[in-house]
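REQUEST FORM: STRUCTURE PREDICTION
Request ID: SP-0412
Submitted by: Lab K.M.
Chain count: 1
Length (residues): 154
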Amino acid sequence: LVDALVAIAPTSADEIRARATGCQSELTALDAEIRAQLAHVSSRAFVASHPAWTYFAARYDLDEVGVVYAEGREPSPRELAALVDRARRANVRAVFTEPQLGELGVRALADELGATVETLDPLGGAGGAGRGSYFELLRYDARIFVRALGDGDG
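STATUS: Completed
RESULT:
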């Protein structure tokens, strides 16, 4: 990205590189902050409304047991039964929805599992309190994960 920006605006190359270095430092610090928050959660397994959290889960050693809505569709009864079975075996305590999606399927699954429902936000933006920037958004979502999965330190 830096190389592409420098190619477009070569007279600003030094500023672009400096800002990129600063951003990389901030991202590294944020990654360490989130890693520390999630390191001691008492449960690592969860179900999400859709696969927006796959990479987040992999990065922070969480276990996305499954998703309610895959490929833009509701699960079939057989798929839902299999998801319930996997979630029970993994002792899922949290099912996550998002402000951009409906909650009906998520709430039904959570009721079946005796799990809590929490709202994660993959998009953020000015409309979400405390979620206006990328950094705020990731901190918000990390706090939701900790709250839902249980703070093993507390």
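NOTES: The helical segments are 2-8, 13-38, 54-59, 77-89, 104-113, 134-149.
Reviewed by: T.R.
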